[in-house]
Design a protein that fits this description.
heterodimer; A: alpha/beta; Rossmann fold; Alpha-Beta Plaits; 2 domains; 4-stranded antiparallel sheet; 10 helices; 28% strand; B: mainly alpha
């Protein structure tokens, strides 16, 4: 597949602060590529360099074969952009904003459809200032799509959306991808990256520390399954003899058994054998969160 | 092109929805018209108002006042606010050019200046029957020069003032100094020499002279018009030099 975005050794500093240390990645046509990392990892700076909104100190960037430093205006016409920090005039109405932003493209989408899809149809005549945080956010996503872009950059797109609206947003972005638009998604939400992205790059302190499909990342970095249950008994040393068990930890009454293989069945059998029948026995499969902890050494919230 | 006109249309609607700028650009000159007209009427007196009727004097002055309100109160606050809040950034990311952003403001300035001037003319004509402009062709030239001048002045202030608050403060201060001393307030002839000196260095003073002469039937005021052009060019260059998207 051809590369739509190619980034080589991108570096950007603000004074003595290194925002992006050394980042390289490729995004192929028609995929949802996620940049996942904690706040301050350099995600936003990276995508702003790609959109010709910031000048990198060094490195080579190609988006749609264009160099953002030289072909900024053509590039901006062909991409869609939802920025983390931006606004519209307070008194502009939702439909006026969409109509205005559609005017930059020769083959813009019908903004009536976008208003409908993003749940803003009844807010079309409302002023920007009167919209709720989630409605503003959805309007910004709709604005990023209205010029029918070849690549769309979404920076923390579900910030401020309620859980139901997030699910809807994910479905809509998938359908945008299915129509052939490449999506570059910046997020600090593990579940968003895991659910939505075809490939994910985990960024920490200005560098990519791991990159693969969410499943691939989990398979290669986090293989441990966790079985969790509660019991009053404290002497559980015998559990270590169960095949596949690596580690047992206690948190009050709650016990967590980590290991590999068909852990749940084996641990359950051993518990029953020792007369322990917990009602809350459950298994947790490894997730992107575990990968993140492992490759960065801290959680995304830190 | 289509973005320029769409943006201009949106900006006109936004202007109308913003009460403060409407008050300063459209309502205040009319209030002035009636205050000054009520006090001075339109009977000429040889010692003041360049020897012409006060309302003949003020009609073109109020055109200048409207242009000046655009350049000191409306535009700087608008542009500084756009930058401060990330609206310019949002525009830029969607490939809006600096020409459509500033070009739309220039067109809006013309729309407001023309609308405001028509309003002032109708009100003034009905209340105090000043004479019609003696040289309408040159008045149009002067009108275009004045509007472009104060639009560029507004671009300059909007480019260098970092925030909405600073733009409001500086813009208001300049508005009142120019309004009182620049030729739209009391007649020059009754002001102290210090006030006259300050009045003479305000852009409004020269824009008003450029407008007044064709209206009153005096010769085209070449030096005033050249100073107006000079202010326009310097403001435009400084605006281009200091314009920032974010």
């Amino acid at each position: 597949m051809p590369s739509i975005i190619s980034v080589q050794n991108l570096r950007k500093t603000y004074g003595k602060t290194v925002a992006v240390d050394d980042i390289s990645f490729e995004v192929t046509k028609g995929e949802i590529f996620g940049i996942l990392g904690p706040n301050g990892a350099g995600k936003t700076t990276t995508v702003e360099c790609l959109q010709a909104l910031r000048h990198p100190d060094s490195g080579d960037i190609r988006v749609l074969g264009l160099n953002p430093l030289r072909d900024a205006q053509e590039l901006r016409r062909r991409i869609g952009s939802q920025l983390q920090e931006s606004a519209l005039p307070d008194r502009i109405k939702a439909w006026e904003a969409l109509d205005l932003f559609a005017s930059v493209a020769s083959k813009a989408l019908d903004w009536h459809v976008l208003l409908e899809q993003w749940g803003l149809a009844d807010k079309r005549k409302s002023s920007f200032a009167s919209l709720s945080g989630g409605q503003k956010q959805r309007l910004f996503i709709a604005l990023s799509l209205v010029n029918n872009p070849e690549v769309v950059f979404l920076d923390e797109m579900t910030t401020g959306l309620d859980p139901a609206a997030r699910r809807v947003a994910w479905d809509l972005i998938r359908s945008v991808r299915d129509r052939g638009t490449t999506v570059l998604l910046v997020t600090h939400f593990m579940d968003e990256a895991e659910n939505l992205c075809d490939r994910v790059a985990i960024v920490d302190k200005g560098k990519i520390v791991a990159s693969d499909s969410p499943q691939g990342l989990v398979a290669s970095h986090a293989t441990a399954v966790r079985v969790i249950f509660s019991t009053d008994k404290t002497d559980l040393a015998w559990l270590k003899k169960v095949a596949g068990v690596k580690r047992i930890s206690h948190r009050g009454k709650q016990v967590e058994v980590a290991g590999t293989g068909p852990l749940l069945a084996l641990v359950a059998a051993a518990l029953v054998e020792h007369g322990i029948v917990p009602s809350d026995l459950r298994v947790e499969q490894p997730s992107l969160e575990d990968v993140f902890l492992k490759v960065t050494g801290h959680s995304a919230a830190e | 092109m289509s973005t320029l006109f769409k943006l201009t249309w949106v900006e006109i609607k936004l202007f109308i929805r913003e009460p403060i700028t409407v008050v300063f650009t459209l309502a205040l000159p009319i209030i002035f018209l009636f205050v000054m007209g009520g006090v001075f009427g339109n009977t000429p007196s040889p010692d003041i108002y360049r020897g012409v009727g006060p309302m003949d004097y003020y009609m073109p002055s109020y055109y200048g006042l409207i242009m000046m309100a655009i350049g000191t109160v409306a535009l700087p606050v608008h542009l500084a606010g756009y930058r401060e809040r990330g609206i310019l950034r949002r525009f830029r990311a969607s490939s809006f050019s600096v020409w459509s952003v500033l070009g739309s403001q220039l067109l809006v300035s013309f729309v407001i200046a023309i609308a405001g001037s028509i309003l002032v003319t109708i009100m003034g004509k009905v209340a105090y029957s000043p004479h019609w402009p003696v040289n309408p062709g040159l008045l149009v030239v002067a009108f275009v020069m004045g509007t472009v001048c104060f639009t560029c002045f507004g671009f300059f202030l909007g480019a260098v003032l970092p925030s909405t608050r600073s733009a409001q403060g500086v813009g208001m201060l300049l508005f009142f100094i120019m309004m009182i001393l620049g030729g739209a307030g009391p007649p020059m002839e009754v002001m102290s020499s210090a006030m006259q000196v300050i009045g003479n260095i305000t852009p409004l003073h020269w824009v008003i002279y450029t407008l007044q002469n064709p209206w009153l039937g005096f010769d085209w005021y070449t030096s005033a018009s050249l100073i107006t052009v000079g202010i326009t060019v310097v403001s435009a260059l400084l605006a281009a030099r200091f314009f920032r998207w974010d």
